[in-house]
Amino acid sequence: MILCITHAQDTFTIDRVQQRLEELGYEGFRFNTDEFGTKYRLRYRLHASGPQYELRCGTRTIDARQIKGVWYRKMWDLQIPPSLDPTFVPAFLKEYRNSLHIFLDALKVPWINRMDTDHAVGANKLLQLNAARAAGLIVPQTLFSNHAEDAVRFFDDHGGNVVVKLHGALSKTMDGKGSFFPTTRLRKEDVPMLESLSACPMILQEYIPKERELRIIYIDGEFFTGSLRAPELADWRTANTTLVQWEPYELPPAAKDRVHVLMTALGLPFGAIDMIVKPNGEHVFLEVNPQGEWGMLEKYLDFPIAATIAEKLVNRIEQHG
């Protein structure tokens, strides 16, 4: 059995991966993490022979020893029972999160991706940029600061060709719906607002002229790359979706080699890498999202991403023995 960690609103991608797992002879059990406190139960028992961890959903009980591999797709915020007294919400969240991690930490099996590594890399874009440069990739000049004078100096040093963004995304979706602060081109009239950095540190980067934007899906050495010619915006998700049309793109072998070195160094079998192709053909690394979206590439470009995730995980399980 393979545990597929996701959330209740996830569609398309989870179904495709589970379908391929079944074709390969492995049952995929969908675990909606947002429903853990409302529809699942965890049991831990310490026997003379060792600990026993069980996950229950309805009438079904899964022993941790049955799980041969884990696909870590998404971790979602816990649903809070509407009848729960607000006074007990902090305790509810704390104890259920602890219980969830106790269960997941017990799974000493192959993962794509391991949760601790996934979170560590996803939460540190500066680590990513440094590792990308060490792997031979071109990265933008970057400043992360809460100091207005630093930001103004950076803006001036780059002739006003600067973008600004949050270190962490507010939106969990690829379409930018909901709370969302897009990567934004900084204008001269915006500079006085940099005084507010003391309330919220932000990333400033040199603006990179772009011929194309790339979303590269890396799966254990395999590459699937979609490209688009978005309007001249710093963040394509702010564009009218009718203007955004994905096209297949063949990443040059040298860029593939460097991305492979990067992902190996970061310890990530899977990741969604964002890059820019400059008018002169140079490829510039922006970031890697260990839980990045890829359904649009499978849907519109017919890339076999879901099947490859399933196959790579099964390969790891069988090599693990």
From TrEMBL:
InterPro entries recorded: ATP-grasp (IPR011761), ATP-grasp_RimK-type (IPR013651), MvdD-like_ATPgrasp (IPR048936)
Record bears the keyword Nucleotide-binding: yes
Domain of life the protein comes from: Bacteria
Protein name: MvdC/MvdD family ATP grasp protein
Keyword entries, A-Z: ATP-binding, Nucleotide-binding
Pfam families in UniProt: ATPgraspMvdD, RimK
Organism: Chitinophaga pollutisoli
Coiled coil start-end: none
Statement: the UniProt record of this protein carries the keyword Nucleotide-binding: yes
Domain ATP-grasp: 129-318
